[in-house]
Specification:
- The chain is an alpha/beta fold and 218 residues long.
- The protein contains five helices and 13 strands.
- β12 and β13 form a beta hairpin.
- The longest helix has 14 residues.
């Protein structure tokens, strides 16, 4: 069933209200890869109805194993949905002069999400990574580590981060990097605006509920 107040519905409604050109979902959209096909069909319907560009980075919960939700369902085949890692690790949006890249979790093993950054191929570049920012040395034991130097080495305009449930900045400021947090816990999304001749601006927007539309599935 489609719940009008499900976090994904509210994220898409908030993006539509802000006239966002691209929605970036930075991993763990699903809790696991055992999600029934009926649920995947419903999510595909929601994203297809949204219509605008959506970029998804598979995380450590919904990684790109052979039985991945992104391989079993039709999500990756939607014309407006771009799943990083299924075919490419970067997508270009020429009409926006924008490149979005990210290294998916291909399995459950540890890896470095921002290793070997993609060279810039557009005036604007966003990197997407799902992992744990190494804020303190005592966190060195954690998996999927992201260091401040790795964030800076992307030389991107912005790094969209997933894995932490709270919305918070990351890195040391050389490159803008933020966790958006889990929408149902943070209650917000991060809105990035590119400005001519200056760095992009980032602000948090509270989640809104989507308006009811005739013909909406239930």
């Amino acid at each position: 069933m489609t719940d009008a107040f499900h976090p994904l519905c509210r994220v898409l409604a908030t993006a539509a209200g802000a006239s966002a050109d691209v929605v970036i979902l930075a991993g763990d959209i699903f809790d696991h890869n055992r999600v029934p096909l009926a649920v995947l069909d419903n999510v595909s319907w929601l994203l297809g109805e949204y219509g605008h560009h959506v970029v998804i980075l598979p995380g450590n919960h919904d990684c790109l194993t052979p039985d991945s939700v992104y391989r079993r369902g039709g999500l990756a085949s939607l014309p407006n949905v771009h799943v990083l890692g299924v075919a490419d690790e970067a997508f270009a949006f020429p009409e926006l002069d924008l490149q979005v890249w990210g290294r998916a979790h291909y399995d459950y093993k540890n890896h470095s999400p921002l290793a070997e950054p993609q060279p810039r191929s557009a005036a604007r570049q966003i990197a997407v990574a799902h992992g744990h920012w190494l804020r303190e040395e005592r966190d060195r034991h954690r998996g999927w580590l992201i260091t401040s130097d790795e964030i800076a080495s992307t030389e991107s305009d912005y790094v969209a981060l997933g894995h932490w449930p709270q919305a918070t900045p990351a890195g040391d400021g050389r490159v803008l990097a933020f966790y958006s947090g889990s929408p149902d816990l943070a209650g917000s999304v991060n809105l990035l605006r590119f400005l001519d001749g200056g760095p992009p601006l980032v602000r948090r927007l509270p989640l809104m509920g989507p308006p009811h539309r005739e013909g909406q599935q239930s």
